[in-house]
Amino acid sequence: MVARRPSRPKVKLTSTWLDILLVATGLLFLVLEVIFTGLSWSHIPDKVPSHFGPSGQPDSFGGKWNLIAVPIVQAVFFIALYVLSRFPHIFNYPVTVNEENARRLYRIGKTAVLFLSDGITLLLGLIQWSLIRVSLGQQAYLDRWWLVVLFFVVILVPMVMILFMIRAWRAAS
């Protein structure tokens, strides 16, 4: 038997300047990656790294067309998270959502998803950039800076947003 979630208020949120900035930034990351890949395409060898070991050295290779997968995945994540951000009433929240706090919690939830979208788009773009540089012989291994971006996207943004939600819940209580 499936447990039903209690009904939550549906609140129409208008886009703020931050929402618009986050969507534009994510779109910019995506467009820049596609442009960089397109401009580099004729110089990329037919065999490119497809996997890196713990040391950052390539340990598996595949065809040049494998590089097309990254922008496609990036675009799918960007679009999916943008669409998801428009339905904050279906998110999971660490606090109870009611009429008094719904607007504020939904605003925080929407912003969190848009930050997550930008972080994933940036992360995939940086990985693509590094893959192309390794393929072109401009660097020998996958840089480890992406771990910092990954930490920011996966741990720091959600933690900060949860703290904001708890504060909003306490303020409404």
TrEMBL record:
This is DUF1648 domain-containing protein. It comes from Alicyclobacillus macrosporangiidus. Keywords: Membrane, Transmembrane, Transmembrane helix. InterPro entries: DUF1648 (IPR012867). Residues 28-74 form the DUF1648 domain. It comes from the Bacteria. The chain crosses the membrane at residues 20-44, 64-84, 112-132, 144-166.
